[in-house]
Amino acid sequence: MRRVASLVFPGFELLDLFGPLQFLGMLSDMFEVVTVAENRGPVPSNQGVSVNSVRTLAEGDDYDLLLVPGGRGTRSGVGNQALLNWVAQAAGNAEVVMTVCTGSALLAKTGFLDGKRATSNKLAFGWVQQQGPEVEWVKRARWVEDGKAFTSSGVSVGMDMTLAVIARLRGRETAEQVAVWSEYEWHDDPSWDPFAGLYPD
Amino acid sequence: MRRVASLVFPGFELLDLFGPLQFLGMLSDMFEVVTVAENRGPVPSNQGVSVNSVRTLAEGDDYDLLLVPGGRGTRSGVGNQALLNWVAQAAGNAEVVMTVCTGSALLAKTGFLDGKRATSNKLAFGWVQQQGPEVEWVKRARWVEDGKAFTSSGVSVGMDMTLAVIARLRGRETAEQVAVWSEYEWHDDPSWDPFAGLYPD
């Protein structure tokens, strides 16, 4: 059984969080998902609907997997030292670290991605790059794996990346099974990226 | 501005709800999303994480759009007369009614889908059919539109269906824009369904 910490903060993007949690949550014999935030209780998403955090940052940073979503809230997040300290510790402790969309900005800001390959949302790519000048940013990629770091492009792509994480931890057949249960067509090629070309470099 | 009522109940499926709400929520000048449940406050999903309902069934059933997710909770939901009464009223009042996965079982149980074409999750199709014997169930379909009723297949398919709803209400270009913002490849053909064939009739 692996414990998954899902960081949540005001202004997180709904699908960044719940796409991955749907797929991990379908394997309830393998993953236990815990929402973690600065305070326990309701945390409003960028779309208004709020989710509940059940654990605080202060209550620990030792999880098997770490999931960092993106969203408008990352803009203030990169200036929140308590949050960044927790992300740095939790990323160090985890077996697998996942970011979706601008969640990679938070992870990059801690220095954890320095010297590693990573990607992010194509719409906010320039701003994300500024948060980690020592990161080897890959613009054309649906997601990027480098060691234990999995970073994905925008909003919906966290789902494809999560299936790749499941494939690594439990085999490709299980990942494909989860996709079928969800009637989801897995884009399993991390280099397939028709969206990168839509924005100027 | 259109008000969207998202029904939530214990044991709803995360992505059934949050895929559609991500896309509708990105058009915040057009849609206002409200979570509705029997009681106000935390409602646990099938995956454990809880969302907050901000309105109760008793507080009204007059919304422009209605979204009914699926999940394990629909199994007891079809026996909950107060819930079914609200779904029947809200569906009658709405301009567009959307179900994802086994959410169509709840809608079918009210009689609202009688004589209409509809679909559901392929894994639970037999059980869903039993909830609405007068419905014209379509097994091979990613989603089905019949008048104001949009019913979709399992878990991830609510996203494709929601883009079709956006296309109807605000034009195809807007739906395509939302897909690009999310780096999502829209399966825009409702008859594309590689999953229906995986299960016996």
Describe this structure in words.
Two copies of one chain form a homodimer. By secondary structure, the first copy, chain A, is an alpha/beta fold. Chain A has one domain (2-198): Class I glutamine amidotransferase (GATase) domain (Rossmann fold). Chain A is built from seven helices and eleven strands. Chain A has helices spanning 14-25, 74-77, 81-93, 103-109, 125-131, 157-170, 172-181, and strands spanning 2-7, 31-37, 41-44, 50-53, 55-56, 65-68, 96-99, 117-118, 136-137, 143-146, 149-152. In chain A, strands 5-2-1-6-7-11-10 form a seven-stranded mixed sheet, sandwiched between helices. The first copy, chain A, has a two-stranded antiparallel ribbon with strand order 3-4. A two-stranded parallel sheet of chain A has the order 8-9. In chain A, helix 1 (14-25) runs parallel beside helix 6, helix 4 packs parallel to helix 5 and helix 6 crosses helix 7 (172-181). Chains A and B meet through helix 1, strand 2 and strand 4 of A and helix 1, strand 2 and strand 4 of B.
